[in-house]
Specification:
407 residues, Dna Ligase, domain 1, eight-stranded mixed beta sheet, five-stranded mixed beta sheet, Cell division protein FtsA
Length: 407
């Protein structure tokens, strides 16, 4: 939460592998968000979405927060923070309870969600989200809002998302060392999908693929509810590394070349077009055909999309995504990525940018900021709130007391 002239603002903090972004937004009555400030800082303390250097991560967060405060003209006190990485797991579960007074109350819903959450998970994992898919009352399924309905037996079908407890604690520790509190810790697949997917797509069946720097996050929706979440530890950084090795150029220059000239489909790159490639050491730069660069990049993207396809095959939802694939994230902006994805998946593919958001154009029209905007949208939408939110807040407060007590 942030304050500016008595106006309450909310802040999404996307702690990514390549950068940390803080986005300040104001919720309007129609459900839209106006972005009033953004701060960004290179990230040095994460690897594949997981904190590996607390001090570096803390410094990156502080710089991003200070920049966002300056632009928005506010003081940031708390944030909705994202958590990602290949440690994220998800399972579908059921819970059944008797309806106490023959009419479903909020207490009945909380009890049935607790029952659905009571499944064995590894000791090093923590439940991050309990997401209702549908409710069943006395055998009548397809119910999404059961409170007030009559019946004697309530069943909930839910999607549980778990993550590494140590990974969550390290993120919380970094945020606490910046003098901030956590409004909610949100899995980044949920945030990104909230920002870029439409209700119609979720109802028809859609797969969101968020290609970041360290990980590629996947979320599948059918019949309006989330069904599957996973992450693949191959993303934009691997493409940069391929360019650096194959073209014998420093990693920093390889990243610049990727952003300016790379193409994921070699047919789209003209063989006559050349690019300047810096060499290692004192050697002179070389000129190479842009199509040569595309021949390096295309196999990596093809591999990535094949891994996503295999993940969908294992999940059992590959034939249920009638609305196709929505690509988002920084590495999805590359020319040819959408066209190559259509060749691999044989379904419609589009590039996803944040929807229902106004304000700063560099945020509104950019898939790079899908997660940051999604953290604001998900955190500010009370329809998403379940008992797991209350649990995670209590867990963070306990952690903060321990942290401040020891430090």
């Amino acid at each position: 939460m942030a304050k500016r002239n008595e106006t309450k603002l909310q802040v999404g903090l996307d702690i990514g592998t390549s950068k940390v972004v803080a986005i300040v937004g104001e919720h309007h009555a129609d459900g839209s968000i106006e972005v009033v400030g953004i701060g960004s800082s290179p990230s040095r303390g994460l690897k594949r979405g997981v904190v590996v250097d607390i001090e570096s991560t803390v410094q990156s967060i502080k710089r991003a927060i200070e920049e966002a405060e300056l632009m928005a003209g506010c003081e940031i006190q708390s944030v909705y923070v994202g958590i990602a990485g290949s440690h994220i797991r998800s399972i579908n579960s059921d819970g059944i309870v008797a309806i106490k007074d023959k009419e479903v109350t909020k207490n009945d819903v909380e009890k049935v969600l607790d029952a659905a959450k009571a499944v064995p998970i590894p000791n090093d994992q923590k439940v991050l989200h309990v997401l209702p898919q549908e409710y069943v009352i006395d055998g009548q399924d397809g119910i999404r809002h059961p409170i007030g309905m009559s019946g004697v037996r309530l069943e909930a079908r839910v999607h549980l998302i778990t993550g590494s407890e140590s990974a969550a604690q390290n993120i919380a520790k970094c945020v606490a060392r910046c003098g901030l509190s956590i409004d909610q810790m949100i899995v980044e697949q949920l945030a990104s999908s909230t920002a870029v997917l439409t209700d119609d797509e979720k109802e028809l069946g859609v797969c969101m693929v968020d290609i970041g720097a360290g990980t590629t996050d996947i979320a599948v929706f059918t019949q309006g509810a989330i069904r599957h979440v996973s992450a693949i530890p191959i993303a934009g950084d691997q493409v940069t590394n391929d360019i650096a090795v194959s073209m014998r150029t420093p990693t920093q220059h390889a990243e610049d070349i990727k952003l300016k000239y790379a193409c994921a489909l070699r047919q789209l790159a003209s063989p006559e077009e050349t690019i300047s490639v810096p060499s290692v050491g004192d050697r002179q730069p070389r000129r190479l055909a842009r199509q040569t660069l595309a021949e390096v990049v295309e196999p990596r993207y093809e591999e990535l999309f094949s891994l996503v396809q295999a993940d969908l095959q294992r999940s059992g939802y590959i034939d249920l995504i009638a609305a196709g694939i929505v690509l988002t994230g920084g590495a999805a902006r590359m020319e040819g990525a959408v066209e190559l994805a259509e060749e691999v998946f044989h379904v419609p593919v589009r590039l996803g940018v944040p929807v229902d958001v106004a304000g700063l154009k560099e945020v509104v029209n950019n898939p790079v900021h899908a997660t940051g905007v999604g953290l604001l949208q998900y955190g500010g939408n009370t329809d998403f709130v379940t008992d797991s939110v209350l649990e995670s807040e209590g867990w963070f407060q306990k952690f903060k007391k321990w942290f401040l007590g020891d430090y």
